[in-house]
Amino acid sequence: QVQLVESGGALVQAGGSLRLSCAASGRTFSNIGVGWFRQAPGKDREFVAAISATGERTDYTDSVKGRFTISRDNAETTVFLQMNSLKPEDTAVYYCAARRFAGVASFGVLYDYWGQGTRVTVSS
Fold first, then answer.
1. Nearest-5° angle of CA 93, CA 95, CA 98?
2. Fewest CB within 10 A of the end CB: N or C in the chain?
3. Is 45 buried (19+), middle (13-18) or exposed (0-12) by CB count in 10 A?
4. From the centroid of its chain, how far is CA 70?
5. pLDDT truncated to tens, each residue of the chain (124 aa)?
6. Is the dihedral of CA 74, 77, 82, 83 positive or negative?
7. 15 conformational bin, left if phi > 0, alpha if psi -120 to 50, beta if neither
8. Among residues 31, 30, 72, 66, which one has the least CA distance to residue 50?
9. How far apart are CA 16 and CA 34, in angstroms?
10. pLDDT digits (tens, 9 = 90+) for 83-109
């Protein structure tokens, strides 16, 4: 089992920055891949970013490339999502997810554990 707790969501103006955190506990953190997903009002959940267990591999959806950066601190069992140049279309509830494998994945069905989410609102 892995427990995930997201934090860092807030109301921010367009062009601003936020850093989301995902604190993990339970299963050996350094062996698992972690991803961020988001769900905007009235829309399906979508993949945002993922990082491998060692942090050597990352993946991003096209709409956030160059603006968002995923990273992890295995000593602190935490994954971060640094979000810069935020746009109103980034408004969503952001979820952290973990999988029982070390690699990156962009499909939600490949993840086994999910957090409760943290809300990000970007005003224009």
1. 175
2. N
3. middle
4. 7
5. 899 999 999 999 999 999 999 999 877 888 999 999 999 999 999 999 999 999 999 999 999 999 999 999 988 899 999 999 999 999 999 999 999 999 999 999 999 999 999 999 999 9
6. positive
7. left
8. 72
9. 25
10. 999 999 999 999 999 999 999 999 999
What is the per-residue pLDDT for 85? Answer: 98
Do the Cβ atoms of 61 and 49 come closer than 8 Å? yes
Query: Token digits for 22?
Result: 């995902």
Amino acid at the residue 13: Q
